[in-house]
Amino acid sequence: MIEQALDSVEAPDAGGDSAAAQCPSQLGDRPRLVLVDPDALARRAVVDGLRLDGRFVVIAQAAESVEAVELALHYRPELVVIAAPGPHVLSAVERIVAGAPEVRVVLLSASRELELEMSAVRAGASGFIEKSAGVASIARALTLVASGESVISREMTRHLVDRLRRTPEDGNGMRPVKSTLTDREWEILDLICAGSTTREMADDLFLSTETVNSHVKRILRKLGVHSRGDAVEAAAQLRGEIFA
Predict the structure, then answer these.
(1) pTM: predicted TM-score of the whole model, two decimal places
(2) Which domains does the chain have, with CATH numbers?
(3) Where are the alpha helices (DSSP H) in the chain?
């Protein structure tokens, strides 16, 4: 059967692409999945487990996150699961989400790391799962992601709730529905309004100070102001329009 052939396929060569891997209609209703893990044994264990589970079709495998981008943009599967640690992972997530927004990316980690999980979600990942959860739990989580939901840890949920509770009553943190600022730029602007320094913003958002400064420059330009103080006033005016 074609599903069985695709379930066992390794990362394809440029000239060896399977036409069926690019055609979901030939695979029934099961979500297509690309798996990336540098550990060949661990990768095989997950593939075998997902095959036995029967809810997914693994159309390709790879050892590096860089390959994940190529496979995701070429095949545009429903899911890309990356278990490859290293500095290229978040960049790979961003590139996949930017180039194929319909593809949902999930990270598999050897341990629960809140900072990595937050950074992954900010980069566009739809889920973060510990490998130790076992294939059955991983399959259940992937089913939720494939259906449009997100999977995050209880620790991250608590962190997000705590941040929401700390939102000042003066409205700092509220954002107009329509705005020229991106979500990331509003995050930076919220921190500017809270009096955070560039270093503090970089630490809070897990960014470099250079990246923060670039965001600040774009924020000032979009708001038509020349200083952070003026940006604070502009933000207050925009938030006031919510209640106007």
Answers:
(1) 0.62
(2) 2-154 (3.40.50.2300), 165-240 (1.10.10.10)
(3) 2-7, 40-53, 65-75, 88-99, 114-123, 135-146, 154-165, 183-193, 198-205, 209-223, 228-240
